[in-house]
Amino acid sequence: MVKLELINSPSGEAPLAKEHDLDRMGAVIDEVRDWLAARQADDGHWAFELEADATIPAEYIMLNHYLGEIDEDVEGKLANYLKETQGKHGGWPLYHDGDFNLSVSVKAYLALKLAGEDIDAPYMRWARKAILENGGAARANVFTRFALALFGQVPWRAVPVIRVEALLLPKWAPFHIDKVSYWSRTVMVPLKVLAALKPRARNPRGVNIAELFVKPASKHLFYLNNPTGKFWGWVMLGVDYLARALEPLMPKSLEKKGIEKAMEFVTERLNGEDGLGGIFPAMANALMAFDALEYPQDHPDYVICRKAIDKLLVLHDDWGYCQPCLSPVWDTGLAAHAMLESGLTDDHPVMAAANEWLLGRQILDVEGDWKANRGYVRPGGWAFQYWNDYYPDVDDTAAVVMALHRANPEKYAEAIARGAEWVIGMQSQNGGWGAFDADNDHLFLQNIPFADHGALLDPPTVDVSARCIGMLAQLGHDKSDPVVARGLAYMRREQEDEGSWFGRWGNNYVYGTWSALCAFNAADEDMHARHIRQAVEWLKYAQRPDGGWGEDCSTYWQHRRDEVKTSTPSQTSWALLGLMAAGEVDSDTVSRGIDYLLTAERNGGKWHEEYFNAVGFPRVFYLRYHGYSAYFPLWTLSRYRALKGADTKFPKYGI
Prior knowledge:
mainly alpha; Glycosyltransferase; 23 helices; 9 strands; globular
């Protein structure tokens, strides 16, 4: 067999693909598999770096200066990272090669100034000019203005009314902490304590950023805005102004009870060295709340909270950054799928260690916050981080259950059954699944001024739902199962007009479409049905001339949904896995995509990928999983090889 070559067709149509050299492909698979195996930890897990935008390293520096705990060596490395990631527009983007973002830029500028950078340096002048041209720091989002209020850079009226007494409200109240997403919950609760106490950052160097305001911050009248532009948004703004007028009348005794309730919540979920909610913003707010309540720095809660934050640092010789969280369960579950796909069996030392590590991470005893809506369901899920018992993740759970099941369904039967039971119990009323909670879709809350980031809730999404359906189908639940039937109906309803599906947790329609096609195939959907063929045609249409696929983070804005800058290994892998799920393994489209992966720049087992490939919150917070460009291409090439030599053209697993 000859190596794949691309030849031009006389009509000027897309190039035609010849057959691949499967021996050469096997050599690539072996090399990548060996590379991945060499990076497995001694206890069996994988954990790759998880990178966000400049916000997190900037906030780490700001946290140090809030507390008066300056670490010049670490902050110097983070400052170098901030300078390196400054965009061509002068400010900082939400993702690699992205547009200017005001809120990220204000935090990055402040962090650099706190770290001792000269404001007359060219990069600081450049950033300052970009910020002022875009309205100045007063126009930054709520979270940024809250941070500026802590540093005394804006008055407290620059942020919405955030009353800690809200934690005392009954569940039937319009606002209750159970009605927002887990990430909002863990961030907001300690934030409410800070809003009540209104502490002032120590700021040992006395840094200010008055130069970033078009007019003095104290003279800016209207900081708040209507986050949705809808009628209820204006109503909520009116409620906020009324609440601000009534604040002086609020009994201090209620505020004290609210603070006690908040800190009870925080300490109960402190989560050891893995931190509150396992995410940096929640941990940082918790640490500042401990400080505001005058906890001594040697208090056990203060110490462990600080340690959890510092574990997020990635430091090199002269640069570094702070991760938003850690992703070992997700990385290990997906890497396990790739390794199994490449030919390893469950008794191979690499797989045996990975499976046992995953088995030990199942949450069987703790009833997390999900019990607010599903209190009758037994625990049984997996978290995203090393440990996060209060917040297991439906997506992780489905992926891990499928990995354990394909490895050895008998050996891991008990863990598989408990995981599936929990996932089934977490199905929302509309048939879909959210990531951490069921029926977390109180959409009216998106109108409150605090919700200007648009990520307050955790409603069902197609990508998570697809993983759940794929898991159930792999375990033997057929389309007659009411849970599966409702899930499939939800997914069909959510299909976009042109055939794709929205991707909530990965960029974007390629990710969602891959997820959906895998689920439909696993559930024995007719893969020649109209909605499936629409999806296939959309993926074929989206293929780039180089054979790959790429979707920019900007596609989360509807008017930019077709924007592409370059093909990436991760997105190409998702598209190919989706097409193969639809039986397209022999198509020219798949052949050209495989050639892209075989010829794309690669360093050992990791393909080169600078562009961000995932989403924290669409239009607000993006991520780059450093492991995606290793295990997804391995998975894809291995599946292609397996299907080319199989009697069937359809994969048999749920993902």
